[in-house]
Design goal:
Rossmann fold; globular; binds coenzyme A; about 20% strand
């Protein structure tokens, strides 16, 4: 069975991620969406449990996609699960150097897995989880950026209209 891992912070998962997950699900027998730890990022806004719940709420349509979490090295997770690929979305040239570095490091740490880059769909080119968090926390409309199933959870937590932002 050809297993692919789609790793990320997913704080929260967005339409851009879902597009990559959907396309990866057609290329591999099984796809694991892996909530991972990025030591370069400050504390996440959503807990790992919440991020997993949001992912589970949006992957229901795919028979071969599951969600999991890992707070260690991605390479170790690949070895443990026997995954043969890391799938990442490439949005713009600016993503490339960082992604290239990570792909090389992961290849060195786990020679049995390849990194596969999928180019983002044009409408998700400038989308990121932090952009979604910023728009929601300023009371903006996040329709079109995140799947409808998790819009309420994100707004509930971040929107000033829900009284969570102190003025
Ligand atoms: N559409 C829309 N947005 C996208 C996207 C897409 N297709 N792909 C990525 N993004 C966004 C993400 O939401 C993220 O936004 P944010 O910075 O506002 O949160 C941003 O682009 C960067 O994404 P990415 O480069 O995937 O970073 P990440 O923090 O989500 O994931 C890890 C990085 C977790 C995969 C990486 O740190 C890791 O592998 N950690 C495990 C520890 C490890 O093994 N470290 C050694 C690695 S060599």
């Amino acid at each position: 069975m050809r297993i692919a891992v789609v790793p990320g912070s997913f704080d929260p998962v967005t339409n851009g991620h879902l597009d990559i997950i959907n396309r990866a699900s057609k290329l591999f027998d099984k796809v694991i969406v892996l909530v991972s730890y990025n030591p370069n990022k400050q504390k996440a806004r959503f807990s790992v449990k919440e991020r997993l719940e949001m992912i589970n709420a949006v992957i229901g349509d795919f028979d071969n996609v599951v969600a999991d979490c890992n707070d260690g090295l991605l390479a170790d997770y690949l070895e443990r699960t026997g995954a043969c690929a890391i799938v990442k979305g490439l949005r713009a040239v600016t993503d490339f150097e960082y992604e290239f570095q990570m792909a090389l490091a992961n290849r060195q740490l786990c020679s049995t897995a390849e990194t596969v880059f999928l180019t983002t769909s044009p409408m998700n080119m400038y989308l990121s989880s932090s952009m979604v968090r910023e728009i929601a926390s300023l009371g903006g409309d996040i329709n079109g950026f995140v799947p409808p199933a998790i819009r309420g959870v994100i707004l509930e937590r971040l929107s000033p209209n829900h009284g969570n932002i102190k003025k």
